[in-house]
Amino acid sequence: MSASVRGAARRYLNRTGNFTVRQAFLGGGPTNSLISALRPLVRREISFPVSECVYSWTTRYQQTWSDVVVRIRLNPDAGITEATMAGLRNAWETTIQDRWSNRWAIGRSGEIALPVRFDVQWVTSNEHYVVRVRPGPGRSNLGTWHTADTGAVASHEFGHMLGNPDEYAERDICPNRDPVNSGTIMDNSSNTIPARLLARLATELGSAIVTIPR
To answer: CA-CA-CA-CA torsion for 132, 126, 43, 40, nearest 10 degrees?
Structure first.
């Protein structure tokens, strides 16, 4: 399996042996409709439970090959203006997408590697996550963000939405957490995103995380 067109044919159409892309997806028809035939076939709503230390949640997102969409409904507390929310949505979305996208690719030997890209969508229904937005600074988590949160903080919380646990030390609560003090985005909200934080996306395709071809 892989993130390639042939990989999709093997995984979703159970094709084996020698075949052409046209035969697999279009029955030998015109190739200009390949993308429209292909994307709905490989698009999946992903959901799985995560448990780490005393914390647990359900991870949800939409994956179409190496493209990942996370739909988030923000519920601001009373008194937070729409102007404030508009600024936060822009800052959070821009930073999350910039930090997580185009860092790694999905692929395997002999087939084209596709960069992993993320799309944050603010929605009012059909959300993957509901996030309460509270005024001022505070300790944020998967379900509660604050108006003082930077894009870096939002990017850390977004990592939880992809199924990644924290990587900072909480010795009184989680003495056996491993790794800790990793220096990654899941530790100190840095710009460091190792391949292992995206491994699940490749596993879903029966593929692997690889470097982006230059």
So the answer is: -150
Please tell me the pTM assigned to this model.
0.85
Could you tell me if 213 and 114 are in contact, meaning their C-beta atoms sit under 8 angstroms apart? no
The domain that holds 197 is classified in CATH as 3.40.390
| pLDDT tens digit sequence for 134-156 | 999 999 999 999 999 999 999 99
**What integer pLDDT is reported at residue 42 of this predicted model?**
82
Decide if 8 contacts 19 (C-beta within 8 A).
Answer: no
Print the domain residue range for 161: 43-210
Chain segment 51-73, per-residue pLDDT in tens: 999 999 999 999 998 999 999 99
Q: Is residue 21 part of a domain?
A: no
Number of domains present in the structure of the chain? 1
Residue 179: inside a domain, yes or no?
yes
